[in-house]
Each structure stands twice: as structure tokens, then as C-alpha cells.
Amino acid sequence: MTPANVADATLLPDLLHGEETRVWGDQAYRGQADVIHQCAPRAQDCTHRRYRHRDYLDEVERAKNRTKSTVRSKVEHVFGVLKLQFGFVKVRYRGLAKNANRLFATCALVNLFMVRKKLLYSAA
Predict the structure, then answer these.
(1) Which positions ≥6 away from 67 have C-beta within 8 Å?
(2) In this predicted model, what pLDDT tens digit does every residue of 59-101 receive, in sequence order?
(3) Given its phi and psi angles, is residue 95 left (phi above 0), alpha (psi -120 to 50 degrees) or beta?
(4) CA 46/CA 20 separation, integer angstroms
(5) CB-CB contact of 41 with 63 (8 Å)
(6) Residue 3 in this model has a pLDDT that exceeds 70
(7) Angle between helices 96-114 and 116-123 (to 10 degrees)
(8) pLDDT > 90 in the chain, percent
(9) CB–CB of 7/32 below 8 Å?
């Protein structure tokens, strides 16, 4: 949980613990290869690369980005459930602590929602 005026890319060193093997990210993390290498030296940088530049379209890089997006889509699905099923679209309270508490409780519910079929079938 951060204020809205803090960019995601500035918090990248806080997100990495150093034991990562791969770092996945969208184009917001483009240009952060040095930070990734400093914080996680064994991690492979799997962030999206620019594939359009001055009316030139690099199809190879575009295909690589598409492959990376299939991996990232598994994580993005969780955020879709968080927003659509549980209504976590806008903050509700004033202050980061109250909104962080609501976020963490909602994330616990999302985890249960994602495995609901496995839980129902194991109980039967």
C-alpha cells in the first residue's frame, strides 16, 4: 500500500528480496534492469521491451512480449477478481492504514474465492 503519487517503478528495490530467479513486469518497469541486477543478481529480467520505435515495428520483440504477457495474465486474473467480485475499485476510508487493512482482508477472501471449487470437492 502506497500513496497514489508514488510510482510503482520507484518501489522496485523494496519488492525484490534477492533470491528471485525471474522478474516479470510490464512496460512501467522498463529501464529498471540495473535495479533488478543490483537487488537480485541471479534474476532474469522478463519485463516488457519496446517493440515500436519511430515507425519501425519489431515483430520478434512483440512476440516475446506476448509470451511474457501469458505468464503475467495469471497474476492479473487475481486483480480482476479483487476488483469485480469484491468491489475493490476505489479506496473507501481516509488513511493508508485503514485501506491497507481492508486490502489485506479482501486478499484473504480472494484466495478463498480462487480455490473455492477445490475446497467444495474436497469436502464432498
Answers:
(1) none
(2) 888 888 888 888 888 888 888 898 889 888 887 888 888 988 9
(3) left
(4) 12
(5) no
(6) yes
(7) 50
(8) 12
(9) no
What mean pLDDT, rounded, does the chain reach? Answer: 85
Runs of H (alpha helix) within the chain: 12-15, 33-39, 59-84, 96-114, 116-123
Residue 36 burial by Cβ neighbours in a 10 Å radius (0-12, 13-18, 19+): buried
Cell of 102: 481492508
CB neighbour list of residue 13: distance below 8 Å, 6 or more residues apart: 35, 38, 39
Per-residue confidence (pLDDT) for residue 108, from 0 to 100: 94
Residues 6+ apart with CB under 8 A from 98: none
Could you tell me if 42 and 20 are in contact, meaning their C-beta atoms sit under 8 angstroms apart? yes
Strand partners, 3: none
What are residue 23's DSSP bridge partners? 45
The pLDDT, as a whole number, for residue 111 is 92
User: Which pTM was predicted?
Assistant: 0.65
